[in-house]
Structures are given as C-alpha cells and as structure tokens.
C-alpha cells in the first residue's frame, strides 16, 4: 500500500513540476535554472523518502514527520560532502547561491573587554555591560538547553555538557574571538541563568510527561469539542513514555558510550561556531537557526536509538539509522572546518590550558581504571576470601560436631581419651 501510495504521489508531483516548466518560458539564467533544478530534485527525493524510509522509534505527531527529517539528514550530509570537496574560495562563494549576502568576511563580536558588572565611570547607565550582553542569544541558550534536556532526559549529563562547553570556550578563546566572554557571562548568565533554567524547565516537563496517562482514544469517539481539541494537542506528545536511565558507572560499555555521547554533543556545539567562522556566516543568519532546528529534530531520534541500543542490545541489535547519520554529519562538519581553516585550529593552546586538560584526562582515566578494573579485582578478591573463610568455618564446625558425636559413642564402651584420638 505504501509503495503504491508513493508511486501515486511521485507521479502527481512529477506531472506538476513538468506542467510548470512547460507553461513558463525557461529563463536564460544558468545559475537560476541550476538552483531550481536542484530544489525540484530534493523535493522529489523527500517525497519518496517520507513514504518509503524506515520508521524510527517515534510515532507522534506522525511517523512521516520523522521520516521527513531522516531524508533531510541525507540531503544535508550530501551537501556537506559537496562543500568538503570544493576549494576554500569556491566553497565560500558557493554560499552566495543560497543567499547573495553571504561569501563576505565578517568581523566577530568580542563579548569580553570591560567585565565590570557595575561601571562607576558611566554615570548614565552603570550596568551597561550587562545590558550589552543581553542579546538574542540569551533566549536562544534557554530554549536550546530546554530542548536538549528533552533529548538527553538526564540532569547530570546536561549539567556536565553545559559546564564542559564553558571550559571549551575558555580553552579556545585564542582561536575564536567569539569565545572571549566575561567570567560572569560564562558562569552566571550562561551556566546558571540560561542553561540552568532551561535544564530545570526541561526536567519539569519530563516529570510531567512521565506522570501523564497514555491512554489514546480516537478523535471521532470523543463526544465534546473540548475533548477533541485536547486530543489534537496531545497528538504532539509522545505515544508512550520511556525514562532514560543511563547508569554510566554500571559497566565499562555504558561508561564509554556516555563519554562518546558527551564528546559528540560538544563537537556538534563547537561546529556551530567554527562553521560560521570558516564559511563567513553571521551568527544571526537564518541558516544557523535552521541548522539548530535540524539538530533538535534529528538529535531526539538519535538519542532514543542510542539508548535503546544500550539498554536492550538483544532486541535492538544494530544502532539506529538516524544515530549513524548524526554521527556522520558531525564528523563531516568537523572535516570542513579542518580543511577550510587549518591555521586557526592549529593555534597552540596556552601552556596552563594544556596542563589543565592533561590533568583532567589523567583524572578521568584514573577513575575509569579504578572503577572498572582495580575496584572489580579488589571486590572479587574480597569475595573469594570471604567465601574461603566461610567454607573453613563450616568445615571446622563440622569437624567439631563430628568429634563430639564420636566421644558420646565411645564413652559407654569404656575407651580412654588417648585411644579415641588414635
């Protein structure tokens, strides 16, 4: 049925596109015709994929919605591969086909500078430093971390990623001026207010979703209009609820998987800043926002597929297709950054930053070795020793009971103690 439906939709779409091209006179603009042909090809592929792609773990609001984002992932990955194989100048100028205002080097905004919370030298507005930092990225941080919390569904992992990214900004501010911020901008505005409040609201939403009763009823079986409207709104909530219990310290496999998830999250966050730096895109450009919307939709599916694969590997024998695509997209974006601006990436870290990262890596490796190797060996040795002591105690107890029993049997016969011992 789906195959027949797909062929029907493709036939109608192809006829419509052909009818449009026949009605109008083809312009003599090669760039315009190329752009229009690429867009039409993408639309046909998306139409095919929405009905033919494999269903993911989500079924609300409709499985076709998530199949659409899976196909968008394929298109975006192909676009990244195309950009990767261009020269630096051609790749930057190619962005002009998407937006004529792109392809021009833009200065980065420095969020550092004067870090006084209260500036007594400015009598008109002594708190001007705070108001200067309150731009459109403040609500973006809040909503971003609210949605990331809905994807990860774990308070500790969200806080670790949030704090780790601030350390990355400290470490890489010599490469990107955009990372240079005041200390209170890092820890008060970002970690506590924007990220922390977004994580808190996200956890409250997760708590509400976990307590919600998931009992679905057909729309036309609901008698009241209020009930129908409520059912339509609830169509955009999950079909059923799965609580994520990552348990990173339960096994070495889960610990490595959680570390890999955190690493990919941080790399994807860094790609956001480095891509707009090497491709000359302003931070407020709509392509940056579309990329974030894209990752919100595909990231939720990828996290669910990763958790299912970790939690029940017998049923989910392979990692999901969306998870593999997200990993490939993140890696391709990083390769583009490496190719387009290797000089910026090879700027050496300050010595004290290098020392801090080496110390942190040593601590993580030490804890990993202690938790999953040394501690297990120690616990196994203690358990074996305890079992041997219990076995020896039971054996001594049996021997003592046996001697007492033999003594009671020998005394009526008049045997002496030294004879019983022999």
TrEMBL record:
<feature type="transmembrane region" description="Helical">
    <location>
        <begin position="323"/>
        <end position="340"/>
    </location>
</feature>
<dbReference type="GO" id="GO:0005789">
    <property type="term" value="C:endoplasmic reticulum membrane"/>
</dbReference>
<keyword id="KW-0443">Lipid metabolism</keyword>
<dbReference type="InterPro" id="IPR004277">
    <property type="entry name" value="PSS"/>
</dbReference>
<keyword id="KW-0256">Endoplasmic reticulum</keyword>
<dbReference type="GO" id="GO:0006659">
    <property type="term" value="P:phosphatidylserine biosynthetic process"/>
</dbReference>
<comment type="pathway">
    <text>Lipid metabolism.</text>
</comment>
<keyword id="KW-0808">Transferase</keyword>
<comment type="function">
    <text>Catalyzes a base-exchange reaction in which the polar head group of phosphatidylethanolamine (PE) is replaced by L-serine.</text>
</comment>
<comment type="similarity">
    <text>Belongs to the phosphatidyl serine synthase family.</text>
</comment>
<protein>
    <recommendedName>
        <fullName>Phosphatidylserine synthase</fullName>
        <ecNumber>2.7.8.29</ecNumber>
    </recommendedName>
</protein>
<feature type="region of interest" description="Disordered">
    <location>
        <begin position="392"/>
        <end position="422"/>
    </location>
</feature>
<keyword id="KW-0812">Transmembrane</keyword>
<keyword id="KW-0594">Phospholipid biosynthesis</keyword>
<keyword id="KW-1133">Transmembrane helix</keyword>
<comment type="pathway">
    <text>Phospholipid metabolism; phosphatidylserine biosynthesis.</text>
</comment>
<feature type="transmembrane region" description="Helical">
    <location>
        <begin position="6"/>
        <end position="24"/>
    </location>
</feature>
<dbReference type="GO" id="GO:0106245">
    <property type="term" value="F:L-serine-phosphatidylethanolamine phosphatidyltransferase activity"/>
</dbReference>
<feature type="transmembrane region" description="Helical">
    <location>
        <begin position="65"/>
        <end position="85"/>
    </location>
</feature>
<feature type="transmembrane region" description="Helical">
    <location>
        <begin position="184"/>
        <end position="203"/>
    </location>
</feature>
<feature type="transmembrane region" description="Helical">
    <location>
        <begin position="36"/>
        <end position="53"/>
    </location>
</feature>
<dbReference type="Pfam" id="PF03034">
    <property type="entry name" value="PSS"/>
</dbReference>
<feature type="transmembrane region" description="Helical">
    <location>
        <begin position="155"/>
        <end position="172"/>
    </location>
</feature>
<feature type="transmembrane region" description="Helical">
    <location>
        <begin position="286"/>
        <end position="303"/>
    </location>
</feature>
<keyword id="KW-0444">Lipid biosynthesis</keyword>
<feature type="transmembrane region" description="Helical">
    <location>
        <begin position="255"/>
        <end position="274"/>
    </location>
</feature>
<keyword id="KW-0472">Membrane</keyword>
<keyword id="KW-1208">Phospholipid metabolism</keyword>
<feature type="transmembrane region" description="Helical">
    <location>
        <begin position="352"/>
        <end position="373"/>
    </location>
</feature>
<feature type="compositionally biased region" description="Basic and acidic residues">
    <location>
        <begin position="392"/>
        <end position="408"/>
    </location>
</feature>
